[in-house]
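2024-03-11 09:14:02 DEBUG pipeline.ingest accepted 1 chain
2024-03-11 09:14:02 DEBUG pipeline.ingest length=173
2024-03-11 09:14:03 DEBUG pipeline.predict start
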Amino acid sequence: MKVARIFGPALLILAFALPGCGPAADEEGGNEPEAVALADQEDAVCGMLVREQSAPRSQVVHGDGSRFFFCSIGDMLVYLAAPSAHGRADAVFVEVMDPQEDPGQPHTGVHPWQRARDAAYIVGVERPGIMGEPVLSYATISDARRVAVAHGDARILDLDGLRDWWAAREAAR
């Protein structure tokens, strides 16, 4: 017992000094994963070529370095709701749309990536040619409001609200 009291603090200091020990880098704000550009990645849920699908698309990075891409925010939500052999998701990114873009038209060009927790989401907008329930993502709440105003039944949500909406939608099916 005395040994633990004497050496306990020293072992704790040593653990934080060793590389790979202590809190994860993203908890301290350093070395967080970054989004990568789309190339020829397949959607981890449906297998479609992600870059050929209309924005917004998404990507998830796990603690083990595994990165998965999705051709829609809906596929990302399905993926995040399931247990993963790769552990927890360290970072989730979504493409954010320009509020000037017509959500009813396809937008397969390059869009900026943003952390999913910082984006604003819109549900309730019709999008022809999109599989599943359309979810749009924007860089800010004000961008989302500019789009939602033109669509009467549209709702603006943050990431937690989006996950709750998705879970309630799935439970009702």
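2024-03-11 09:14:41 DEBUG pipeline.report The CA atoms of residues 56 and 95 lie 5 Å apart.
2024-03-11 09:14:41 DEBUG pipeline.predict end
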